[in-house]
Design goal:
Rossmann fold; 6-stranded parallel sheet; alpha/beta; 3-stranded antiparallel sheet; globular
């Protein structure tokens, strides 16, 4: 049985709205007041998704009171920089939903990467429940995918000892600007309750096709292979697995 589900859409807007609706349904039907820990990413499709969530949540009066916001990755820039993943979420989602400051746990990209990663790990482990392997169990992680199959800021070709490390956040030197970044590591993505991947953009067909193969070697493939279930929402035709 496949360990992933693929949902295809005709347009970015359709994808963003459908995923937003699906998340809002989950928040509406969940019971109890325990924290709902979510990690978000950056990118063009993320911006569309954030705007759809804000629009639909306002119309339906969905409560975000239990939701704690973390980041799957961050660029090492100030929070006011146009490259900041935090700023993207703040502009299109957090401000619109009036999320309280104590529910926003940004990665401090203006700090030295190792220190920012350590502080981010301490914060996420303070709030999210932990599994037997010392990993925080996020309720839901939203990821995108790059042309090379990277997710968060986990890129192809990373040293295996780094990829296998049990740290929650890892400093990364990326092949694309801005180079210095902080990312959730593979073990934390494997531990998450749910991982939803939003894939859109030209030139990604081959990477998505490989990622969905049981023999794939991309970062997204590694995430999928580490989990029993991952949801992929795509406007790209993946074709037949290689």
């Amino acid at each position: 049985m496949p360990n992933h589900e693929l949902f295809s859409f005709a347009t970015d807007d359709e994808l963003a709205r459908t995923v937003a609706e699906r998340w809002l349904v989950e928040l509406t039907v969940r019971k109890g007041k325990t924290p709902f820990c979510v990690a978000v990413s950056g990118g063009r499709i993320a911006g569309k998704f954030f705007r759809s969530v804000a629009e639909l949540a306002g119309a339906r009066r969905v409560s975000f009171e239990p939701v704690h916001f973390f980041w799957a990755d961050e660029r090492c820039v100030p929070p006011t920089d146009a490259e900041s993943n935090f700023l993207l979420a703040k502009t299109h989602l957090l401000d619109a939903l009036k999320i309280q400051p104590d529910k926003i746990h940004r990665l401090r990209g203006e700090m030295a990467p190792k220190r920012a990663a350590a502080e981010g790990e301490a914060e996420i482990c303070r709030i999210a429940p932990m599994n037997d392997f010392g990993q925080p169990v996020l309720d839901l992680v939203f990821l995108g995918m790059g042309e090379d199959g990277h997710v968060a800021s986990l890129f192809p070709g990373a040293a295996d000892e780094i990829a296998r490390a049990r740290v929650v956040y890892v400093p990364v030197v990326a092949a694309k600007p801005p180079p210095n970044r902080i990312s959730l590591n593979y073990a934390s993505l494997a531990a998450a309750g749910q991982v939803w991947v939003l894939v859109s953009g030209a030139g990604k067909e081959r990477a998505l096709q490989e990622s969905l193969s049981s023999r794939g070697g991309t970062p997204l493939a590694r995430v999928i292979q580490s989990r029993s279930r991952t949801l992929i929402f795509s406007v790209i035709d993946a074709g037949s697995p290689p």
